[in-house]
Amino acid sequence: MDKQASGGKKFGYVLSMLINAALLYVFNHLSNWNIPYLLPTFQGCLWAIRLSLSATIFVNFIYIFFDETWFHHLMQAILNCFSWLSIYFLYSIFPFAFPAALWGQIVKIAFIFLLVVIPIGTLVELIQFLRKVNHK
Questions:
Q1: Predicted structure pTM score
Q2: In angstroms, rounded to a whole number, what is the distance separating the alpha carbons of residues 15 and 39?
Q3: What pLDDT score does 131 carry?
Q4: Exposed, middle or buried, 136 (CB in 10 Å: 0-12/13-18/19+)?
Q5: 96, β-bridge pairs
Q6: SS3 38
Q7: pLDDT per residue over 85-101, tens digit each?
Q8: What is the pLDDT of residue 3?
Q9: Interatomic CA distance for residues 124 and 127, integer angstroms
């Protein structure tokens, strides 16, 4: 019943954990690095970003020990919700002040695109999860 990940997959999960931990470090220290385009309101988004990255690290850790396809689909749907939450707060607070207004508009459009696409991907993951569970 328990299906452990193969060596290659375990390496990928550990690599993903390391990359997300590095991203967590970067986002936690962005305010200290005096990036001119980043406003102090970024702190209002940081909790959602931390939550999303931490959840991804945790899920990849679980994948090392439990590597079933149906579980991947379910966890990806949940992680998509955390990602959507992060993007929502980045869009609604918009803690950026770009020197050219065009860049701000491009980033806002990208956020809107993600806010539409992530729920679609979540729905696909949930459908795949239900298909895998029903075919067992």
A1: 0.91
A2: 31
A3: 96
A4: exposed
A5: 38
A6: strand
A7: 999 999 999 999 999 99
A8: 76
A9: 5
